[in-house]
């Protein structure tokens, strides 16, 4: 195996010759680095940020907090969880950043990560079957295999509002928040009502002199039910963590929620109310994840859930106009066809006198000015700061931005111009030995690479018919649900011009793993090149 020449401090003269290059040091990339390194592969990570943590490195906006609860949302490695205890059921971004420092120290990850290394190109050399990957800072690596652990939410979406560049106040996207941004005593605007905007709004409403929230579609947010976690409680719980993490992989969401089997219509009204009261009181994602799941396919079941949500939420808002807007009689979209957000006191904060709401559906933004925003009503609203909580070019945005070229010379931008094609969500035709991971796939790819090496397989590459089949299966499953009825980032519909299609596997983690492992065992749907030069 070839040697690694670490990059020089200024990033020049860097050349790494690797078995595996990983792009991204979030949860997935860190785990991949650790697992591949244990197997003796020469592996290195290029990370765009100045430290590891992925979304937790980038998202430092006020109120940032994970909404997947503990103990599920953490590395399942015993060497990590044994000595780490969380202070809250839903820890803050600050605590997650501390956690990543601890993970780094425990697993010594940083020695194999180059930071501030934003990948800006990868060329495939077919003669030798390697890729040369470059970064904006001038790093270079040659690798036999490329793992893209670039996450779902990296590339910010900036809506193209007219004259945005004229605004002379502070303009910040939620995911590019910096420590010097101070909201105290300011007139702040937030655009958005997704999970990020909910968290920002809760916090900024407390600190800003005045807050105006611009909302195109209201959120259907669920109560977080935050609570402190006791160290002793966690110490005791750890006796079953190994089993708990195994169990999580067998659930649809990866979180430890048992779903109800059958249909909610099998219950009487009283039984349903009793169950939903219980799920509601548990907080987190219990109300949708631990529920009957027919609400995703059945409009009547879906509407029952919305009405339950509305009955619980509306009384929290005293201002009648705000209540009517934030909790409309008719659901703004089918419940859960946009990702649910968790809130702590969002509705009380929106009710405050120093918080105004602009309904963008009836009063859309016309243009930005030097001092603020003018909507259709013609009034100029003045702001010191505008926060874009407008989301991400999700799932594909980071890959299409990197100029990774395949065997055929095409970038992902070009390859996916008419929609995303992958086999198993893992590999793309034209891109030998390139694997896309979003978390659960790491262990599967680790086993795959061991198999390839054991069997003398130089490279695998998705076949186009397999990609077409995979895509069709995802779209067919999607068409059986209410998801395609709503414009969401799941559907790529939040980005103007992006193909509208389901970007996620809908069968749940357990079924996904069954399907992927079956295909990787036989390598069905892949073109395989062996060391002897044979192709199959
Ligand atoms: P998002 O869910 O895509 O929400 C973006 C918001 O911006 C929406 O309210 C959207 O309105 C609005 N928007 C976008 N373009 C607009 C335009 N041109 N004019 C007016 N409004 C516009 O993005 P996000 O809130 O950043 O969340 C993205 C994902 O990140 C979440 O779904 C979640 O998976 C993850 N996340 C997780 C956490 C956590 O764990 N704590 C926190 C934050 C985010 P429309 O609805 O009308 O499109």
From TrEMBL:
Domain of life (superkingdom): Eukaryota
Tell me yes or no: is Oxidoreductase among this UniProt entry's keywords: yes
Q: Which UniProt keywords apply?
A: FAD, Flavoprotein, Monooxygenase, NADP, Oxidoreductase
What InterPro entries does the annotation carry? FAD-binding_Monooxygenases, FAD/NAD-bd_sf, FAD/NAD-binding_dom
- Domain FAD/NAD(P)-binding, by residue range, is 19-234
**UniProt KW Cytoplasm keyword:** no
Its cofactor is: FAD
Q: Which Pfam families match?
A: Pyr_redox_2 (PF07992)
What the record says about family reads:
Belongs to the FAD-binding monooxygenase family.
Please identify the protein, giving its name as recorded.
FAD/NAD(P)-binding domain-containing protein
């Amino acid at each position: 195996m070839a040697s690694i020449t670490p990059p020089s401090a200024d990033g020049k003269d860097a050349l790494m010759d690797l078995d595996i290059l990983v792009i991204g040091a979030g949860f997935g990339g860190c785990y991949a680095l650790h697992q591949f390194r244990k197997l003796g592969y020469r592996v290195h990570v290029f990370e765009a940020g100045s430290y590891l943590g992925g979304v937790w490195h980038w998202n430092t906006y006020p109120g940032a907090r994970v909404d997947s609860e503990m103990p599920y949302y953490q590395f399942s490695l015993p060497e990590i969880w044994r000595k780490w205890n969380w202070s809250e059921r839903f820890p803050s971004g600050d605590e997650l950043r501390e956690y990543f420092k601890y993970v780094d120290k425990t697993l010594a990850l940083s020695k194999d990560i180059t930071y501030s290394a934003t990948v800006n190109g990868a060329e495939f050399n077919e003669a030798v079957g390697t890729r040369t990957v470059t970064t904006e800072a001038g790093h270079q690596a040659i690798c036999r295999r490329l793992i893209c652990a670039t996450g779902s939410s990296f590339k910010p979406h900036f809506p193209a509002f007219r004259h945005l560049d004229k605004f002379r106040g502070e303009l910040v996207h939620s995911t590019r928040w910096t420590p010097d941004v101070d909201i105290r005593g300011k007139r702040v605007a937030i655009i958005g009502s997704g999970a990020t905007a909910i968290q920002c709004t809760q916090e900024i409403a407390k600190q800003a002199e005045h807050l105006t929230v611009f909302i195109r579609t209201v959120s259907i947010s669920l109560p977080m039910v935050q609570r402190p976690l006791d160290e002793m409680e966690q110490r005791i719980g750890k006796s079953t963590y190994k089993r708990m993490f195994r169990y999580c992989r067998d659930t649809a969401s990866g979180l430890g929620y048992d779903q109800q089997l059958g249909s909610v219509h099998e219950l009487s009204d009283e039984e349903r109310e009793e169950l939903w009261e219980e799920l509601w009181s548990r907080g987190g994602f219990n109300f949708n994840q631990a529920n009957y799941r027919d609400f995703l396919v059945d409009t009547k079941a879906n509407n029952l859930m919305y009405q339950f949500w509305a009955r619980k939420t509306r009384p929290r808002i005293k201002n009648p106009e705000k209540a009517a807007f934030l909790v409309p009689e008719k659901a703004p979209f089918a419940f859960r066809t946009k990702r649910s957000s968790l809130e702590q006191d969002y509705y009380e904060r929106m009710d405050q006198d120093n918080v105004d709401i602009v309904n963008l559906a009836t009063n859309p933004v016309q243009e930005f000015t030097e001092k603020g925003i003018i909507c259709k009503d013609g009034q100029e609203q003045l702001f010191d700061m505008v926060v874009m909580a407008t989301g991400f070019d999700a799932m594909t945005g980071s890959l299409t931005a990197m100029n990774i070229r395949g065997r055929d010379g095409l970038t992902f931008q070009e390859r996916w111009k008419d929609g995303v094609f992958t086999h198993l969500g893992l590999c793309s035709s034209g891109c030998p030995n390139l694997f896309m991971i979003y978390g659960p796939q790491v262990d599967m790819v680790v086993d795959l690479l061991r198999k390839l090496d054991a069997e003398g397989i130089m490279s695998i590459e998705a076949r186009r018919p397999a990609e077409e089949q995979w895509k069709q299966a995802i779209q067919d499953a999607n068409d059986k649900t209410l998801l395609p009825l709503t414009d969401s980032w799941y559907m790529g519909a939040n980005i103007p011009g992006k193909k509208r299609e389901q970007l996620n596997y809908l069968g749940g983690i357990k079924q996904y793993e069954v399907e992927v492992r079956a295909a990787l065992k036989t390598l069905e749907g892949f073109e395989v090149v062996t060391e002897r030069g044979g192709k199959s």
